Amino acid sequence: MTDAVDRIRALPIWRSRVEPCPLGGGITNTNFVVEDEGAKYVVRLGDDIPRHNVMRFNELTAARAAEAAGISPRLRHAEPGLLVIDFIEGRTYGEADVRANLPRVVELVRRAHVEVTRQLRGPALAFWTFHVLRSYLHALRDGDHRLKHDLPAYAALAARVEALVGPSEIVFGHNDLLPANFIDDGARLWLIDWDYAGFNTPLFDLGGLASNNGFDAAQREEMLGLYYGRAPDDQLILKLQAMLVASLLREALWSMVSEMHSTIDFDYRAYTAENLARLAAAAAELDAMDAR
Q: Where would one find coiled-coil regions in this protein (predicted)?
């Protein structure tokens, strides 16, 4: 922590001596708030994490495109392993806030898929859901994870979901739509934290939005209607449920891999258990829908 604070203090962009304050909540990066002559900034520190498909050149590319699209705050400084962005004064959303503001949230996600994709410059990664799942499963087998005996069942579930989703359109997605990545400044919504950004099907973001924020069936259908501008048919509803399952499986496997490798102070085992419970419920709902 001392090395991080010293590095931030030494950045050439400050106009006064700054005192970085830790910003809690991050489970991929270490974050600080810095105040400099009355303005506030967030400093994000994090190295490449290839096992999670997190490469900082890609995050920087995405952050620049999201700023240009008016989706994310202004980027003030970037260097290897470090970004400085404007601090947004506002309310960080919880799950209930996302559900209560569904039209605004979906419009922001839809606009991000269109406008951030258009604003991209230079190399950018793919974040293909099913490649990510297979990669995690290999890593967990190779690492002799404590739940290794469950991995064949998760692999079979991933294959089944991939078949149900079928061919998909591609956008540049955010791929990590946790409620805390939405900030409401009272006039508009912002979408932050592009660590996992990459080309993917929009259904992954929609499935993640639903799974991370506790949507019921009616809210999932409303979300699809808002995003696509039409009432969803049964096939689209089934594909969304399949991708919702994929989102929860990805989150659970991410946490299992993080159990073995992350140095961030966070209870990954509890997070694994929470996501596996959500996954079981979502998979049961998928079974019931697919049997109709």
A: none
- Residue 57's alpha-carbon distances to 62, 68, 242, 279, in angstroms, are 9, 17, 31, 32
Q: Can you tell me the distance from the alpha carbon of 117 to that of 134, in angstroms, rounded to the nearest whole number?
A: 25
- Determine the distance from the C-alpha atom of residue 264 to the mean position of all C-alpha atoms in its chain, rounded to a whole number: 17
Q: Residue 14: pLDDT above 70?
A: yes
Nearest to 13 by CA among 102, 86, 94: 86
User: What are the pLDDT digits (tens) for 141-185?
Assistant: 999 999 999 999 999 999 999 999 999 999 999 999 999 999 999
Expressed in percent and rounded to 5, the helix, strand and coil fractions of the chain are: 55, 15, 30
Q: What is the pTM of this model?
A: 0.94
SS3 83: strand
CA pair distance 261, 180, nearest whole angstrom: 23
| All structural domains of the chain | 2-86 (3.30.200.20), 91-290 (3.90.1200.10)
DSSP letter string, 217-284: HHHHHHHHHHHHSS---HHHHHHHHHHHHHHHHHHHHHHHHHHHH--SS--HHHHHHHHHHHHHHHHH
Residue 29 has pLDDT above 90, yes or no: no
Gap between the Cα atoms of 86 and 75, Å rounded: 7
